[in-house]
Amino acid sequence: MELLKNKIRDTARISEDRIIQVDNFLNHQLDISLFNEIGKEFKRRFADKEITKIITIETSGIAIACITAQYFDNIPVVFAKKHAGLNMNPDVYEAKVFSYTKNQEYTIKVSKAFLSANDKVLIIDDFLASGSALLGLVSLVNQSGAEIGGVGIVIEKTFQGGRKVVEEKGVQIESLAMIDALKDGQVFFK
């Protein structure tokens, strides 16, 4: 997706040749026009799939998933919570995930009331790096008995190997911008 790649080239900041900061348009301040194009592109890439729900993980995936849901006839969006409050149903699916950027493990949770064996799920997330968050979401969907229709990723850092762990599960994965390297403050796309 050239629009996304151009936005990354023009505005992303690189730290330590391993972290790409896109908080000015993707995960702190949000570029809604860009998100609309992202949603349309995910719909195009998964047009042949019957999707009844989108699942993501808090926090950065929520806005992308919600805008994408509009292009799938406004289907519900479910997000896995990292911090369950007292108001959350205690009957949940759970999975452990490790956050690369926060260097911390979380237990993510989704209420069993929101995922069932009747669902056909599209997983949406902002980044794919090592694949830990994605495997956690796959686990939640599998626990529910729902079918995974595919995985949509906005930015994939191919050099961190996350794609392989998901493809081994036989799931279609579509990344809109694939980064092969971050070097000397520059982004190198696949």
UniProtKB/TrEMBL annotation:
InterPro entries: PRTase-like, PRTase_dom, Pur/Pyrimidine_PRTase, Xanthine_PRibTrfase. GO terms for molecular function: xanthine phosphoribosyltransferase activity. This is Xanthine phosphoribosyltransferase. It catalyses: XMP + diphosphate = xanthine + 5-phospho-alpha-D-ribose 1-diphosphate. Residues 24-157 form the Phosphoribosyltransferase domain. The lineage of its organism: Bacteria, Bacillati, Bacillota, Clostridia, Eubacteriales. It comes from the Bacteria. Xanthine binds at residues 27, 157. PANTHER family: HYPOXANTHINE/GUANINE PHOSPHORIBOSYLTRANSFERASE (PTHR43864), XANTHINE PHOSPHORIBOSYLTRANSFERASE (PTHR43864:SF1). Converts the preformed base xanthine, a product of nucleic acid breakdown, to xanthosine 5'-monophosphate (XMP), so it can be reused for RNA or DNA synthesis. Keywords: Cytoplasm, Glycosyltransferase, Purine salvage, Transferase. The keyword Metal-binding does not apply. 5-phospho-alpha-D-ribose 1-diphosphate binds at residues 129-133. Its main location: cytoplasm. GO terms for cellular component: cytoplasm. It is found in: Cytoplasm. Homodimer. Belongs to the purine/pyrimidine phosphoribosyltransferase family. Xpt subfamily. GO terms for biological process: purine ribonucleoside salvage; xanthine metabolic process; XMP salvage. Pathway: Purine metabolism; XMP biosynthesis via salvage pathway; XMP from xanthine: step 1/1. Its EC number is 2.4.2.22.
